[in-house]
Amino acid sequence: MAGSNFVDYVKIFARSGHGGAGSAHFRREKFVAFGGPDGGDGGRGGSIVLRGDRQYWTLIHLKYQRHQFAEDGECGSGARSSGRNAQDIVIPVPLGTVARRVVETEEGETELVPVGEVTEDGEELVLLQGGRGGLGNWHFKSATNQTPRYAQPGEEGDEGAFILELKVLADVGLVGFPNAGKSTLLSVVSAAKPKIADYAFTTLEPNLGIVEVRDGRSFVMADIPGIIEGAHEGRGLGTRFLRHIERNSVLLFMIPADTEDVRRDYEVLLGELTQYNPELLDKQRLLAVTKCDMLDEGLMEELRRQLPEGVPSVMISSVAGLNIARLKDMLWEALQAE
């Protein structure tokens, strides 16, 4: 997921194949006086299908393959020979991919209609169904019509534009302002190697890490790009990171000890999430006050008085390892309560 190769939003144009036409054929054999209808069926057109693949982490492979066109089914022929079905186009996508169709309303406006999401390895989601093949004329033979001279045309395929959007699937999402210590924590508790520096928005894309607790237990943690006030309106990195938070089971709010007011920062972060999607308030929340290694007991006590009520909190230092084991235990317990 590192570098500039993280692509979490792409628009594609897709077209499924038309079904092949059925055949209106009659037997033509030597010494057979009355050859009956024997036109075969047309083949099915190819469908456009998304398939979850845990080997994919981004949508970058679609950045330069935005047109996905399936082939048409073959037409039927004599001797009841059916036309060949066209191959489906199966597009591998990372788990957490959401598909929405771009639809033009009667008023000329654009609307995004949910199609579905892919959350499991091997799970398939049909974007566009291929057209069915038409029936050959032998299907229409009856006592009153011995020589039907018609067959069904194949069904037309479908076409349209789709927005594919990746929402990172993780158990714990880290929420905080830039430089709150999210990347440092992730690098300490997992094998992830996020970029770390002393300027805003070091993290421009989500980073995932596997956090081992004990006894073989583990969970997935996501370092989400930092929030600024007004993010829900698109400021800073805007709603791009907010949609990833939607997919986390537990949210870990991170506020550095050198902030002016821990409670105010927490309320601002909470407000941004609420403005974006009020349902985010239903998720379990924990608070970690970071960079506490330089504080004496008096300053720690003062900080504790600023902590918001009703939110499980812990004072940590990723660099010094202060209370990191306790934090992992708290997160594990919160996940078990889900």
Description:
- This protein has 338 residues and is α/β, with parallel strands linked by helices.
- The chain has a 6-stranded mixed sheet with strand order 10-11-9-12-13-14, sandwiched between helices. A 5-stranded mixed sheet has the order 3-1-8-5-6, with no helix packed on it.
- It has helices at residues 182-189, 239-245, 262-276, 297-306, 324-336, and strands at residues 9-15, 48-52, 67-69, 89-93, 97-104, 110-118, 124-128, 159-166, 170-175, 207-212, 218-223, 248-256, 284-290, 313-315.
- Residues 1-5, 194-204 and 228-239 have low confidence and may be disordered.
- Helix content is 16%, strand content 26%.
What attributes does this structure have?
five-stranded mixed beta sheet; 338 residues; six-stranded mixed beta sheet; alpha/beta
Outline the fold blueprint:
Layout: E1 9-15, E2 48-52, E3 67-69, E4 89-93, E5 97-104, E6 110-118, E7 124-128, E8 159-166, E9 170-175, H1 182-189, E10 207-212, E11 218-223, H2 239-245, E12 248-256, H3 262-276, E13 284-290, H4 297-306, E14 313-315, H5 324-336
Parallel strand pairs: 1-3, 2-4, 9-11, 9-12, 12-13, 13-14
Antiparallel strand pairs: 1-8, 2-7, 5-6, 5-8, 10-11
Percentage beta strand? 25-35%
For the largest beta-sheet, the strand count, sense and barrel status come to: 6 strands, mixed
Structural class: alpha/beta
Helical content class = 10-25%
Taking pLDDT < 50 over at least 5 consecutive residues as the criterion, the unreliable ranges are 1-5, 194-204, 228-239
The helix count comes to: 5
Give the beta-strand count. 14
Query: Mean pLDDT, nearest integer?
Result: 82
Biggest sheet strand order reads: 10-11-9-12-13-14
How far the N terminus sits from the C terminus, by CA atoms, comes to 27 Å
Which descriptor suits the 3D outline?
elongated
What is the helix/strand order? EEEEEEEEEHEEHEHEHEH
Using the CA coordinates, give the radius of gyration: 29 Å
